[in-house]
Specification:
Blueprint lengths: L1 E5 L9 H7 L3 E4 L12 H12 L9 E6 L5 H5 L4 H17 L4 E4 L11 E5 L5 E5 L1 H11 L5 H4 L2 H13 L2 H12 L12 H9 L6 H22 L2 E4 L18 H10 L5 E6 H4 L7 H7 L4 E6 L1 E5 L4 E5 L8 H13 L8 E4 L19 H17 L6
Helix pairs in contact: 2-4, 4-10, 5-7, 13-14
The structure holds D-mannose.
Length: 395
């Protein structure tokens, strides 16, 4: 398996020279500066590639092997008026990536928000901080800050009462913070947070789109892009929903094995692949992670490895150290290694230690939420240990 590292570009707090020190060899990156929906040019991709792949004398080389992500605009997910043009722009970006020989592209199909958390710095017993999704805080936001029409009916009376108590205990600053975290679409996103009215509008635009329709839109998207990827030798990998269930009354369709099976049945070409993310899928107790890895082994080109711990009734969770929590990482890696052994080196699975606790010096530094260097390095080192023990020395 190939050791990857997500790098957010030249402005990011973690530099390429630092990445090199982690022992990772494969860079996972995107043109984060390009607005969502604008087609990437080959020159732009090449420029970034040359930054990554120009190695200072005496240093070990890095290679840009995964684009995470080429974002998909909401118009495609909703199949709005601009959908066709947006898909064409996405294909142009894919062509630019393919022209530079980058073999893997990751994307997601979550409406409006990408990954969602309510706390970025939840203090764990070690003193390191983790990201957390607190169901009650989320409900407090949705019911009393966002005041989403229709939300009330989706919660039980007991949930509403708990959410109200949580909301009433929150300070103005806490309310502003949770609003910022949730409406930036994802913590650490390069997009600006939305105002509450703008966020509401984005949700309203999805009215009438249920899971069946959203899945159909994804299939139509795949029917347009997979043949291009197939012809250009690029593997597309769909990232699972995080958390793997509906939020804000919006449908989600990449949360379970059956969700993925439906997509692979509809568009069977090998380029239609999976980004196997243990942290996202693992939030559901009914997702059997090793079984999912076994079932879709040949479609897994890229893996995000991290663990979460469910709390209470399971709707709340926090991110654990990589080998702790609800994910049996040894069992997962056994499956991935078995698949990797069936492959040629050029198709070896790229994995990255996903997220990481904020610890040691990173507690004093500016970090990208979820992506501090030290916590991720701890994760990578632990994962590497398992691979060595499985006699699967990573490249
Ligand atoms: C979070 C990431 C996601 C992922 C996208 C892929 O840490 O795993 O934001 O990059 O969902 O499109």
């Amino acid at each position: 398996m190939r050791q990857g590292w997500r790098w957010f570009g030249p402005e990011a707090p973690v530099t390429l020279d630092e990445v090199r020190q982690t022992g990772a060899t494969n860079i996972v990156s995107s043109l984060h500066q390009v607005p969502i929906g604008r087609a990437w040019t080959e020159a732009e991709v090449r420029e970034r590639q040359s930054l990554i792949e120009t190695t200072p004398a005496g240093r070990s080389p890095l290679i840009w092997s995964v684009v995470e992500s080429i974002p998909i605009p909401d118009a495609v997910k909703r199949k709005g008026g601009q959908a066709k043009a947006e898909i064409e722009a996405w294909i142009a970006s894919l062509e630019a990536v393919a022209a530079c020989g980058i073999p893997i592209v990751c994307y997601n199909f979550m409406p409006v928000v990408d990954w969602t958390r309510t706390d970025l710095d939840y203090v764990t017993p070690t003193g390191a901080t983790a990201m957390r999704f607190d169901h009650e805080r989320f409900a407090a936001f949705e019911l009393f800050v966002l005041q989403r029409p229709g939300a009330t009916e989706e919660y039980s009376e007991q949930d509403r009462a708990r959410a109200k108590a949580v909301y009433e205990s929150m300070t103005e600053a806490e309310i502003a913070e949770i609003t910022r975290i949730i409406t930036s679409a994802l913590p650490g996103s390069t997009t600006e947070p939305l105002t509450i009215p703008a966020f509401r509008e984005k949700l309203i635009a999805y009215q009438g789109i249920d899971a069946k329709k959203l899945r159909q839109h994804l299939i139509e998207f795949l029917e347009a892009v997979v043949p291009v990827a197939e012809a250009r030798g690029v593997k597309l990998t769909l990232h699972p929903d995080d958390p793997p269930r509906s939020l804000f009354g919006l449908p989600r369709i990449a949360s379970t094995a059956e969700d993925y099976a439906a997509l692979f049945d509809a568009v069977p070409a090998a380029a239609n692949g999976m980004c196997y993310c243990t942290g996202s899928l693992g939030v559901r107790a009914d997702n059997d992670l090793p079984a999912i890895a076994r079932r879709f082994a040949s479609r897994i080109y890229f893996a995000h490895l991290r663990a979460t711990t469910r709390e209470g009734d399971g709707r709340t969770f926090h991110e654990s150290a990589h080998l702790e929590g609800d994910v049996n990482m040894v069992a997962v890696l056994k499956e991935l290694v078995a698949e990797d052994r069936r492959r040629s080196a050029d198709l070896s699975i790229v994995f990255r230690s996903d997220h990481g606790h904020r610890m040691l010096d990173d507690l004093q530094k500016n970090v990208t939420p979820g992506y501090p260097a030290i916590g991720r390095l701890r994760g990578l080192a632990e994962l590497r240990g398992i691979l060595y023990a499985l006699d699967a020395v990573p490249t």
